[in-house]
């Protein structure tokens, strides 16, 4: 088993990047006044930021796609040309492409650190020479490539949508139109992806979350700040308890920290310089101290470690916490539970000796594996390492990074897992193992992570007394299983299409009376079920049985108990299972055993 190191561009990514240029060429032919931003590869396709006098609507996408197919049929060649940066500036000035000039001037004046990863894809790594690509003899774009040879090589494509995006992500800049497209090697793959998207739309957690009454948003509270109802809170608490059931037996203990901290904490940790623009700032009127709402928990946890003298006998110390952090996301990037400003993390940090790292990482790996097995989500691993060509983006020296990365790689290999290498995907303080989970309709999500950190213990001067009587630095391991509870809950809603397994269902049993004459029996049954630890709902409403069943099905309740004259003794029950029309007869004891078995095993079976 070993690492799969992806090249900077895979063949399908070359197709996707080339398709972005074909789309831009089509737009240039249809809208000659168009100005072009950047057009990087993303996920399963690409996007391109465009500035046109007449806004492009969803109805225009078919017209653009038709012109793209004409360019494909022409079989235009992709041709690379290199030029000094000053020549490139004049080249694009003559073509009245102001956004390209903005990128080139940033590159010339400030170097590659002044551009984002997507922008770097568009302009390359060099500050003296840049490259352009021609699509046939008409369209030319600032781009580092690579591309396919000719336009017929780009595979199957489909334009997806159009949205707004500020130039370079700055709301003070012009709003451009971002056109998205999908590209796959074959039409069959594209069709399968489009079918998956249709299914994903049906499962949209924003729609289902509202229908099931799990969470809400309020303009008075603020964008990106979800409010969880009683039912949504039940799911959150069940998830927390599941993680706790896996980590408490291996020595994790809960701690609690405040939601704010002085800015000095994050200046010491290094987060201030990296994330200052993402922080919510708070100033005390009484002391004039500068505080921030905490964007992460690890600096607080270092101070718990530092609060007492530590010996090697105390290690490892495994701190865990479920708590919210806050990040000032752009309003346009907020999306349901997927991107929020209040992020609840199932966070944990291990402080250990160098000799304990391997065992502690293995414990983390076991927790993560067991957790995702419970949801039927297969995992793949990525070893995320630093980019040696961008050293200024990371804390610590090369030796620290070499050592940390080799330790994580050894841990993965010892477990016998395949993994891919994610160059440049490390956290700024250390390398990590990222776990990518696949949901029920084939989408992949980066969720769990295990991060190795030699830098924060150094920056905070953490120490313990070793067996030799000398002072030593502990190693710090950052670990998350769900990642963001909000995001994970959104993924779960879509994974199960709202039909949660019994243990997660906010209402596990719906008691349905045949008539008002059976209300007393239903109350008695509901009380008995609650005493058994089962979540039950019963409404004293004069509604038909059929209506109550349809309402329970819409609410995706796992079990429905229809109570009429036959069931008055409660010795035998008429049970209807979610998604099934046929009713079954079970004794009370059989039904209780069935439900409890599903709860204990966290089964997906009813």
Protein described:
The two termini are 38 Å apart. By secondary structure, the chain is an alpha+beta fold. A 9-stranded mixed sheet has the order 1-19-18-20-21-24-17-16-12, with helices on both faces. Strands 2, 3, 4, 8 and 9 form a 5-stranded antiparallel sheet that branches. α13 links the parallel β18 and β19. One of its GO terms (cellular component) is cytoplasm. Homodimer.
Summarize the structure.
With 606 residues, this protein is α+β, with helices and mostly antiparallel strands.
Question: What name is given to the CATH topology of the largest domain?
Answer: BirA Bifunctional Protein, domain 2
Low-confidence stretches: 1-9
User: Quick check: average pLDDT?
Assistant: 91
Count up the helices.
18
Number of separate domains: 3
Strand content: 25-35%
Terminal-residue CA separation = 38 Å
Q: What is the CATH superfamily of the largest domain?
A: Bira Bifunctional Protein, Domain 2
Label the structural class.
alpha+beta
What's the count of strands? 29
Helix share of residues?
A: 25-40%
- The CATH architecture of the largest domain can be given as 2-Layer Sandwich
Strand order within the widest beta sheet: 1-19-18-20-21-24-17-16-12
| Structural Rg | 28 Å
Global outline: globular
Main beta-sheet annotation: 9 strands, mixed
- What is the name of the CATH class of the largest domain? Alpha Beta
């Amino acid at each position: 088993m070993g690492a799969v190191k992806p090249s900077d561009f895979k063949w399908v990514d070359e197709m996707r990047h080339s398709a972005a240029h074909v789309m831009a060429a089509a737009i240039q032919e249809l809208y000659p006044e168009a100005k072009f931003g950047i057009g990087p590869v993303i996920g399963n396709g690409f996007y391109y930021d465009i500035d046109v006098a007449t806004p492009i609507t969803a109805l225009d996408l078919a017209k653009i796609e038709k012109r793209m197919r004409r360019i494909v049929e022409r079989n235009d060649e992709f041709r690379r040309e290199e030029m000094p940066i000053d020549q490139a500036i004049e080249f694009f000035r003559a073509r009245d492409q102001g956004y390209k000039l903005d990128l080139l001037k940033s590159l010339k004046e400030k170097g590659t650190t002044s551009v984002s990863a997507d922008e770097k894809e568009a302009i390359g790594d060099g500050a003296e020479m840049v490259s352009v690509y021609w699509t046939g003899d008409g369209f030319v774009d600032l781009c580092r490539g690579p591309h396919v040879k000719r336009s017929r090589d780009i595979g199957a494509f489909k334009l997806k949508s159009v949205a707004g995006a500020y130039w370079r992500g700055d709301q003070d800049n012009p709003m451009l139109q971002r056109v998205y497209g999908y590209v796959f090697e074959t039409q069959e793959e594209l069709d399968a992806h489009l079918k998956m998207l249709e299914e994903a739309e049906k499962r949209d957690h924003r729609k289902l979350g509202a229908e099931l009454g799990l969470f809400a948003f309020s303009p008075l509270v603020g964008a990106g700040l979800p409010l969880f109802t009683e039912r949504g809170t039940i799911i959150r608490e069940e998830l927390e308890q599941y993680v706790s059931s896996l980590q408490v037996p291996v020595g994790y203990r809960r701690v609690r920290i405040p939601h704010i901290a002085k800015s000095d904490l994050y200046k010491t940790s290094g987060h201030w310089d990296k994330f200052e623009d993402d922080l919510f700032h708070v100033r005390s009127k009484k002391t004039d101290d500068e505080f921030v709402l905490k964007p992460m928990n690890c600096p607080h946890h270092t101070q718990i470690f530092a609060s007492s003298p530590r010996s090697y006998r105390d290690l490892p110390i495994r701190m865990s916490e479920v708590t919210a952090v806050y990040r000032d996301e752009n309003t346009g990037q907020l999306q349901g539970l997927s991107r929020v400003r209040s992020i609840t993390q199932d966070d944990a940090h291990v402080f250990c000796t160098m000799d304990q790292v391997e065992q502690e990482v293995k414990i983390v790996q076991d927790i993560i594996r067991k957790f995702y097995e419970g949801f039927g989500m297969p995992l793949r691993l990525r070893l995320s390492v630093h980019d040696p060509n961008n050293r200024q983006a990371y804390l610590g020296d090369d030796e620290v990074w070499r050592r940390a990365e080799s330790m994580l790689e050894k841990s993965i290999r010892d477990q016998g897992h395949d993994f891919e290498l994610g160059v440049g995907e490390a956290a700024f303080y250390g390398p990590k193992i990222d776990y990518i989970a696949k949901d029920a309709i084939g989408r992949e999500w980066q969720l769990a992570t295990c991060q190795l950190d030699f830098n924060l213990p150094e920056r905070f001067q953490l120490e313990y007394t070793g067996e030799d009587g000398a002072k030593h630095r502990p190693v710090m391991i950052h670990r998350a299983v769900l990642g963001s509870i909000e995001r994970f809950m959104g993924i779960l809603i879509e994974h199960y299409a709202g039909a949660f397994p019994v243990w997660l269902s906010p209402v596990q049993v719906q008691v349905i009376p045949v008539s008002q004459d059976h209300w007393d029996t239903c109350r008695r049954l509901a009380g008995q079920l609650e005493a058994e630890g089962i979540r039950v709902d019963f409404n004293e409403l004069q509604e038909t049985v059929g209506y109550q069943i349809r309402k329970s099905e819409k609410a995706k309740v796992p079990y429905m108990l229809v109570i009429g004259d036959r069931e008055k003794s409660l010795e035998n029950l008429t049970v209807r299972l979610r998604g099934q029309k046929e009713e079954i007869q079970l004794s009370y004891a059989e039904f209780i055993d069935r439900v409890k078995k599903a709860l204990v095993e966290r089964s997906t079976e009813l």
